[in-house]
Specification:
With 114 residues, the chain is of the alpha+beta class. The chain is 35% helix and 20% strand.
């Protein structure tokens, strides 16, 4: 079994912006850098990558209301009738991205201090 860095590129996938590739559904999220407030998207076909800035989070407490919690739980079940609709919602996808960065940052800080 061979593992490459492309095994760690996740969706949501977009069309690759590289003019030599332009592969559909191949430009995914490769790296989330919580401390640097950026994330990297990379094409799983050609390896082209770009960095994108994340908005800064200034809050110490992250409040998730019932709407977000119930929709995140529905995303765990691909058979749920609302799965496709919720997965396509840009607000939910943005929330998942922010949560990923927040959790990653928290784990990095916790491992540094403990």
């Amino acid at each position: 079994m061979k593992i490459s860095h492309r095994d760690f590129i996740f969706g949501p996938y977009r069309k690759c912006p590289n003019s030599q590739c332009l592969a559909e559904d191949a430009f995914g999220v490769a790296i989330l850098m919580g401390s640097a407030q950026i994330y990297t998207r990379e094409c799983i076909k050609c390896g082209y990558y770009e960095n994108f800035a994340l908005p800064s989070i200034k809050k110490k407490i992250l409040y998730l209301d019932q709407f977000i919690i119930s929709n995140l739980v529905k995303l765990l079940d691909k058979a749920h009738p609302s799965y496709t609709k919720i997965k396509a919602d840009p607000k939910i996808r943005f929330c998942i991205l922010i949560l990923d960065v927040w959790v990653l940052s928290t784990l990095i800080i916790a491992s540094f201090y403990y």
